[in-house]
Write a structure and sequence with these properties.
globular; 19 helices; single chain; 444 residues; mainly alpha; 0% strand
């Protein structure tokens, strides 16, 4: 079994490299709130309390990003290796052995990846946090610090999230019939009720936070900035239930006859529902987390100052709160695209057999990346509209000057960055891809 484990890690290196990269970033990002908490423990008075208040917001945003991105990354990892699991079952491995191998592989990569991120965090997070706090009122003189123990503790949480996310997927890989694994295509979600319950609980939390906005306005109505990220988490939890229909609906606006590559990309994204939803969910977090946060914050500002003053937000303060979670989500989306390229090898081989040229195959990859990001942009736009409208509606009885601030430039800028990362991941995988002949395709 040890030999199989080592060979599987080497032969599926592309999928594991993507997972390892995401876990390295996750371990590093977890060091940002750890730095602020450790620094606050060494600082007394209001400065320490201020650091803890900022750290609590960063922890909530980071928790949303970590849980969503790591779970989608692990889902993509298991999805692209379905055929390998089927072959293991066919040659005689028991379901428990398959479960053990997958779980051990994931644990090893999670521990090493998150541990590497923790080492990077020890060196990078204190100066980064210090630079971002430089212009903060009352916090500019703080000297941030992060010990190795604190960094490893926060990284252990990221590794634990990844392993826990992989438990049900590894168990499912061992009990799913081999023919179902070999057949590929979309899989039916087996946790619809659980997803609905979690989504309903999160929505009720947002509703309760919105109900208390008017009373909290004299103190700044700070919960408004967290309502959007929580709704983004709701969209991530419920994604398998609505994303296929959403993608099918908006892509049908553009006729399939527009181009052969567009038609192929649309059909590939719709057919690979599991693979597509993982990328879209990660990009939704990357776009929607800062967008909804800023919409809520700026809308609250209009309740106390003139609407034109709503843009007066410190860029460094926003970077301190949002840079880590947003970067992790963007890297996670790109990693999902990179990891899924293993399945694209078969698709490219089929296109070559059908006579498609390299230009058509290249544009197909481009359209797939665009479909993923635009779908994420649509979801984020809907949540941003709900947050801006809901916050303004909740505050209107006590603040007649409040107006919803949609900040579309934030969403478009995030979408542009995600498109660049998705295309870079797609073409990086194509550059390193081995050519597959027709005989090898038929053998698979």
């Amino acid at each position: 079994m040890v030999t199989l484990l080592v060979k599987d890690l080497l032969e599926n290196l592309r999928a594991w490299v993507g997972t390892f990269g995401v876990l390295v970033v996750a371990g590093g990002v977890a060091g940002i709130p750890a730095t602020m908490i450790e620094t606050a423990l060494h600082v007394r008075g209001t400065v320490g309390l201020g650091l803890i208040a900022v750290a609590s917001t960063v922890i909530v945003l980071s928790a949303v990003s970590l849980s969503v991105v790591l779970s989608t990354t692990v889902r993509t990892l298991v999805e692209v290796r379905r055929r390998a699991f089927a072959l293991w079952l066919i040659v005689g491995l028991q379901p428990r052995q398959v479960f053990t191998i997958v779980l051990v592989e994931l644990t090893v990569v999670a521990v090493i990846g998150a541990g590497t991120g923790a080492l990077i965090a020890v060196a990078a997070c204190p100066p980064l946090v210090g630079a971002l706090l430089a212009q903060s009122s009352g916090l500019g003189t703080v000297s941030p610090s992060l010990s190795l123990g604190s960094a490893l503790g926060s990284a252990a949480f990221a590794a634990l999230v990844a392993v826990l996310a992989g438990l049900p997927l590894a168990q499912r890989a061992g009990v799913t019939p081999p023919l179902a694994l070999l057949r590929g295509g979309p899989q039916r979600s087996s946790r619809v009720i659980a997803r609905a319950i979690v989504g309903a609980l999160l929505v009720s939390l947002v509703v309760s936070m919105g109900a208390g906005l008017a009373e909290a306005l004299p103190n700044g109505a700070a919960q408004a900035v967290l309502m959007g990220p929580i709704l983004i988490a709701v969209c991530a939890v419920l994604a398998p239930l609505y994303l296929p229909a959403l993608i099918r609906a908006w892509t049908s606006v553009l006729p399939a006859r527009m181009s052969v590559s567009w038609f192929l990309a649309r059909e590939a994204v719709i057919d690979s529902a599991q693979r597509s939803s993982a990328s879209v969910v990660a990009f939704t977090v990357a776009i929607g987390l800062p967008w909804t946060f800023i919409c809520g914050q700026r809308t609250v500002v209009t309740a106390t100052v003139a609407p034109e003053g709503a843009d007066a937000v410190s860029p460094l303060s926003l970077a301190l709160l949002l840079s880590g979670p947003t970067l992790l989500a963007a890297i996670g989306g790109a990693a999902s695209v990179f990891m899924a390229s293993a399945d694209r090898e078969r698709e490219d081989a089929l296109l070559r057999v059908a006579g498609a040229g390299s230009a058509v195959r290249g544009f197909t990859a481009v359209w797939e990346a665009v479909i993923h990001v635009v779908s994420a942009l649509i979801v984020s736009a809907v949540v941003s509209l709900v947050i801006a409208g809901g916050v303004s509606l909740a505050l209107s009885p006590v603040a007649p000057t409040v107006v919803p601030v949609l900040a579309p430039s934030v969403g478009l800028l995030g979408a542009a960055g995600c498109v660049v990362l998705a295309l870079a991941a797609s073409f990086a995988s194509r550059l390193g891809r081995r050519s597959i002949g027709v005989s090898a395709l038929m053998a698979v």
